[in-house]
Amino acid sequence: MGSSHNLKRAVRQTSSALLRVVVVLMLIASCGLAAPKTRHSAKPSLVISAADEALAKERGKVLNAHPLAMFYYSDDSLGMASLKAHADAMTLVAPQCYGVDQTGALHGKLPSGILEAARRAGLPLMPLVTNPGFDRASAHTLLHNIHAQQRAIISLAQIAERDQYVGWQLDFEGIDPADKLAYTRFVTRVAARMHRDHRLLSIAVVPRFSDAFPDSSIPGFHTGEWGAAFDFRGLARVADFLVLMAYDEHTSLTPPGPVAGYDWVNAALGYASSRVPASKLLLGLPLYGREWVETSRGTTARSVAYKDLKDYLEDPTSDWYWDDLFRTSRFQLRDGDSERTAWFDDARSLGEKLKLVRTYHLLGYAAWRLGMEDPEFWQSAGQ
């Protein structure tokens, strides 16, 4: 009994002491006092690095631009001259210079001089990453190998940090339509890492005109195999913006025709804008044209820059006219036994497409590519 009584008294004393401690702590809290920090307490750092500050500024420049004017760049003297002369009309420069193979290895580097020129002009850089040669088999292998994808994502993050890119654009083409979901999953993974690093990710997409593929029963323009692999809704949910590559309506494999006829572009925009928020959509503009040369031996075709139209523009026998249906310029010239035909998006036809950017209230446009354009284009480029 005695030991039991002593035990109960000890318990009461302990409980009383604990109660006093609790009361004291409550009084400290109610008075707004804080317990003293130990010398080992970690103090959160509020210091923002110069690199982080510069990245935030570039992000703001891109996403707050109206319109966002993105220009693709390939390494040549004409492109560099355009960049230096018209940087004030640009928001963003996108050099095409990187590729990722089926193992996830990232290859390529910036063309000489572009980094310095862009920095001097205050232009953010968003390089393109392709599946080299738009090879379907290598893309398929990458899209079904999570380890290869992780390798690619780590490389993208490291190089973007090293060279201070505002982000990347994925320009995967030739993808098997059956890999549509796999591509969207890959984009989702890349976007997650880019956003974790406070960088941007954009996706280049090929026009499509319906959700179905094939869609031959639907009147009008049809979704081709090249565009069938793009889930516009799914990609728009995770990327910062999409670029609708609204060009190559006619190619070297088709009869002569516009690179981007007005109705074709409008129909492509109609589909895209119904599935992608306007604030996340850029219209791709062709700054180039295409020439077909027909002879008794067959027909050949090539892409041409505005400077390549010199023969058409200077020869009084050339047949040049504005096509009201396609809202594009057309040239024709007899050269010996050959018939040369060129369709070109000059300043007037590009102006018609810029009106579509405003009509659909798009984020902006992306022009392929610097150095190929009609010089008169720059009068309306920033509008």
Can you give keywords for this protein?
disordered N terminus; 11 helices; 21% strand; globular; TIM Barrel; 5-stranded antiparallel β-sheet; alpha/beta; 8-stranded parallel beta barrel; 383 residues
List low-pLDDT spans.
Answer: 1-19, 21-44
| The CATH class | Alpha Beta
Q: How many distinct beta strands? A: 14
Q: Based on the structure, what is the oligomeric state of the protein chains?
A: single chain
Question: What strand line-up does the widest sheet have?
Answer: 1-2-4-5-6-7-8-14
Strand content: 15-25%
Q: How does the major sheet shape up?
A: 8 strands, parallel, barrel
CATH superfamily: Glycosidases
CATH topology: TIM Barrel
Instruction: Report the total helices.
Output: 11
Helix proportion of residues, in percent? 25-40%
Which class do the helix and strand fractions yield? alpha/beta
Kindly provide the radius of gyration, computed on alpha-carbon positions and rounded to a whole number of angstroms. 29 Å
Element pattern in H and E? HHEHEEHEHHEHEHEHEEEHEEEHE
User: What is the rounded distance between the termini?
Assistant: 97 Å
CATH architecture: Alpha-Beta Barrel
**Mean pLDDT level:** 90
* Number of structural domains: 1
Shape category: globular
